[in-house]
Records
---
Amino acid sequence: MNTRGMHVGNYLGLVHGSETRLVDALTKVSEHHGDEPDVFQTCQLLARWSRGHIEQLAPLVEKYREQRNPEPDALEKALFHGPRSGGLGLVRDLHDLWLLANEVQLCWTVLEQAAQALRDEELEGVCQNCARETKRQVKFFLTRIKQAAPQALVVAE
Amino acid sequence: MATETRDSINDIWGARTPHGPDTPWPERVDEHTTDTPERWVRGTCVLCSNGCGLDIGVRDGRIVGVRGLASDVTNKGRLGPKGLHGWQANNSEDRLRTPLIRRDGRLQEASWDEAMDLIVRRSREIVERHTSGAMGFYTSGQLFLEEYYTLAVIGKAGLGTPHMDGNTRLCTATAAAALKESFGSDGQPGAYEDLDVTDTILHVGHNIASQQTVLWARILDRLAGPNPPKLVVIDPRRTFTAEKATVHLAPRVGTNVALLNGLIRLVIEAGAVDHAFLDAHTLGYDELRRTVETYTPERVETLTGVPANELRRAGEILATTRTLVSTVLQGVYQSMQATAAAVQVNNLHLVRGLIGKPGSGILQMNGQPTAQNTRETGADGDLPGFRNWDNPEHIRQLARLWNVPFDKIPHWSPPTHAMQIWRYCETGSIKFLWIQATNPAVSLPDLGRVRRILQKEDLFVVVQDAFMTETARYADVVLPAAIWGEKTGTFTNVSRTVHISCQAVEPPGEARSDLDIFLDYARRMDFRDQDGQPLIKWHDPESTFEAWKACTRGRPCDYTGLTYEKLLAGSGIPWPVNDEHPDGTLRLYTDGVFPTSAEYAETYGQDFDTGASVTPEEYRANDPRGRALIKPAEHQEPHEVPDDEYPLWLTTGRQVYHFHTRTKTGRARALAEAAPDAFVQLSEEDAARHGIAQDDWVLVESRRGAIIERALIGNVEPGLVFVPWHYGSWDDPSRPRAANELTLTEWDPVSKQPHFKYAAVRISRYDARAALPPKGLLGRAVDAARSLVGSQDEQSTTERSEFPRPKTTQRVDG
């Protein structure tokens, strides 16, 4: 397949970078909030999932020539301000993780659309697998944010 | 005249009354009195979760004994060692008799008015300054239904705080979570009666012989009769239960999901799947089949250490049996992937269609006598009547019932679970913590942390108990509580059977029932409904029960057909009891219809790996409408595993003679003498490797803390050590010995139950003489030890060379 003139590599670079930034942010948040055992354990687990996504990208990068993209770095700087301390800090950190994970989610959606147009089952399968787990990451952040927000915003520590 | 129909200390389960599946379980009445009773008062045993019917013998205003109730469906007259002896704690000299208030750093006697005024003043100040989100309640699995319900209404509709949970989070939260995930609501599908007729019993992480001795006697009677059931036992230790197993599988701690996936795979491979049942009554089987495909016996052996041929033997029994009762307890609930593993037991039954039929049922067990009621009433991080926090119609039902605004009831996320309540105390956002009938300074994980939290300057701690527990020593206010035998109320066992337990004697001194204390608090706080009327409209146990009945109408735990009068007849009656089922309901789901429909379900479910909530929209999009949900899980390695620094697994557990932190059983002489102290059980291999002999002192260390125990060698796999968790410092402050000094602060993502069943530790021989500091330093060392265990006592036993031997012919580690 002649991949010249296609922009799949652009998005592979974007998702690669975004997943890498997510792993980085998850690791930082998990270590910083070690006294919140569920946040620590779950962020470690979710980071493992994202590392798995990056591994699944390898054969596709080969095929579509990934174009390294500096945007995710900038995005992490823009979206991830953590890690911060205290109840409110935890909500803000989880908030940023939610934003980063949604960025990842959108990348997988865009790539899955392209995979369908390309009739590339391998790419489509990877996109679906990874998107499914990314969705679970997003849902965890949302559940934990909803739990923590009332206490963090209303009751002083 | 004293009576003792049997020696329950040395003969734990008593004489056999064998029977086969075609004949009823015979009666056998056990009795123990220290004097001839003048009268007998209807009661129910609270010293394990079984809920045995009994009568309380009274003479001269004191309890003098107990007698099993022959008419009761739960025990047919039998009582276990704890039931036969534990009542003696009621008569202890060291019962709390007056309220205590901390003044100048010391707890000092006070009047009820002073104590309650202080509690109310602090409650008001804190709510005023910080909202009710600064108020937390940590209750129990030991109170009565009426007390929990009153507490739940105070919390949810009076104060409006989401922070209420119980120690049931440590013992039974996973039972509830697993039932909700599979069947849409809490409620045990099976009944004890299924044990009388079943062909096969599967005990998963449940040492029933030691924990529910009367229920085990029921099984022993089947084993001794014609056509006995086969027994499959999953437990890493060779327990009393495992000794009787047809097949005993001993997995490494923390590997339950892998093992159960392997068993389900074998059942599928054997072609034993009930496809008609699956098609008609379940959702999700295909995903389960795909998930378990890779769990071959060989892979399971690698993951769990269970030999492949042993797994095959168990798989064959489970694939061929015509009926099956499974029971699950702490080996699953307090371990890695708790809910995911407990759900696989549900899945096994669904795959085989063995549910809702005589001889086929699931008992996701409870650890405590009244834990089921903590869950039903919403005193534990659930909503009353198994209502769903994420379903606005369910909140509206409660708002109407209590006549309070919809938004008064916290429903923006699940009620706060216990471990999070403690975390909020630690970070300072909960400033008031009211603890009832439980002893977190011994029972929570990582006790060093718990002591630091209890001592926080900015946390006002109220402890309501019958004794000066390790926890009460840290309180700002101590309220003396009446206990079993001194108050009336109802409670429900794991077989959904409701019992009444009546007041037989007056409480000591000024002690009051928990219900009276809560009612007094509500009165003084002046909680009102929307019409300006008192929020709490009941005044005694029976009127509370009537209010509770209204709360359960139309819900799975429907009590509307029950009355105190009916319960006093002395049989025990399983819910639901209503117009349709006036005499109760033996087993649920006989029609294969489960409470999963979106408008009725207690939960919309959670992600097993992360705890993320399924949204109402997602749930409604695939509304199961009465089908059970089959949810698979992949094995995950435990979070802490042995390494070079901490090379052994620790697991913790209970002993037959004690209940919880020995608050009662440690005060009943025969029980205390049968199991006088903690120990560390280790294998001969590990003992030899560390130069440890039987009865040597052993230092056991984890990343959280250290304890010193006598060595008990044998009956455990190499690489694993076991410490019973009952023992704190109230009767022996000489050394750190509570197992929970070592355990981990972490929990299951779904049930939020802490992981007490594994931690990495190291051991070494501890020479007490060599460890004693030189003269002059001794006083300081003893002071340090005393402050470590939070003791005010003068006693020291560091130097004693003799120590009390267990006065029993039975294994104390069984």
---
Amino acid sequence: MEVMSGTVTSGTVTSRTGSRGFATPSTREVVLRYALLVVVLFITLGPFLWQLSTSLKGAGEDIYTANPSFLPSSPTFDNYVKAFQTVPILGFAGNSIVVAGIVVLGNIVGATMAGYALARLRFRGVRLVLGAILLTMLLPGEATIVAQYLTIRQLGLADTLLGVALPGAIGMLNVLLMRTAFAAIPKELDEAAIVDGANAWQRLLHVGVPNVLGMLAVIAIFSFIGAWDDFLWPLIVLTTPNKFTLTVGLEYLSGTFTNNPRVVAAGTMIAFIPIVVFFAALQRYFFRGVDEGAIKG
Amino acid sequence: MTTVRGIRTRRGRVPHPAPRTPTVRAHAVRTHAWFTPWLLVAPAVLFLLAFNLWPTANAFFLAFTNVRVLSGGELVGFANFERMLSDAQLATALVNSIVYMLVCVPFLLLAPLGLAVLVEKKLPGIAFFRTAFYTPVVASAVVVALIWGWLLDDRGIINAMALNLGFITDAVPFLTDRWLVLFSAISLTVWKGLGYYMVIYLSALGGVPRELHEAAAVDGAGALRRFWSITIPGVRNTMLLVSVMITVSALRVFAELYILTNGTGGVGGADVSVVMLIQMYARGFSGNLGYASALSLLLFVITLGPLLVIARINRGRD
């Protein structure tokens, strides 16, 4: 990581530390800022906490009263048990993990290989490949979703988890991101490695990859979240209930339990808590990328 | 580049290279076999062909057929497009999409910028707030829509509190009124998008020179004045990018509306988004893939303009 800040953002880093004196806010400003932060915190996290609270309320507690209490009077996991009993929610979670695992692995390996070749190796056709990749940026996924479904069906993958995972397993945007990351490595390093007799694969593994770990982390995080959260595509591909991913399964659960918000709330928490823990654990890689300007949108 | 002192590799730090043979290139050292790059790009190119270019070409073809899920079809010329002209559902969906877009853009253009300015200063605990504000982005749209469905329920907390405080006498039908359900979904989209665009703005704010703020502060400009005269012009390009991104994502909205309307597509069959129509025709009772493809092409054409703008901005920034 020292390397990244040394190469890419050295200019901004010095200018930031240089102006620390100016950046020290007054007490009044600090208080105002924290007050606003807490208000926004309430808006962004409040709905999740309310759902968590509902999921822990027992059947005996009136959730429809005009004056509902925020804390459950006697917290219980009954609703979670009910959710587990009604639909195979652990199976759904397992399916989501399989899909997300394939997508993360595919993107890490596929985008790294292609990104390296496009950034660091000269070959005929590099412009053609790059142009075709850029062209795909103009296609919103939904515009090809019908044809995509036919392709998956012709491959015999309709109603399979592989069919859900495959189209997103090497994202073209990720190839471009990896290409940008590899392009930022100084040329001299490659040249030194060439002189030492390293071939392209060795240079990729020993010079390239160690210098793009930050970008790899960002891609892994977002591939995982994207696959875990996706709804439309698995909804189209999957038809057998025991193959559902969590999002499709949740819709199924809410269809069965529309009259019991407690159980639906328990189901949403089962889908939500893993992804939020995952993100919280890895958020520093993500926000470091933001500070370094890796996320452009 | 001069600041590079060493690069970490798996074998430890390699000192900054002073090339041992300064004329490496002159000797035309073979750096790699001709097929190596192709081996490296092969998986990506395979996916590009199989899951991007081929489906696109196929989508254009399918739009002129009446292929169904369980049976082959035949070419029907422009019949699918003619059908669009008299499709009342499509007209409703387009109107809804446009309203969606027009309401989302101003909110999501400005609120996240304010948030970004708020979390930019590195106060103690700011990492927690940044992560918390990003949480709705990380959650699946399905999860978020189910949560909001409960909040906005006839007997949910929002109606209960408003009734309790005497603001209303009857529950507001947030989810069962033709227009209210649309605005409920919009507020959900805005809420879920706050953190996403905040991060994009946060990244852009890093590029606004501190010196400008300092100089303005010395000249006596207050915080609001500096926000208006320095921050906004400094992130103008990002604002353009963000507004295009909001437009495109508003046209692609699906899960929020699908869940809030229990998969029915809206009150009295008033279908609420083009994407929803595509889903309905692709996988629904009729399984008319030809018409669904024609609808996807329509979506593609509508989003093409905004996406070209994004591509142009991105190229300008590289």
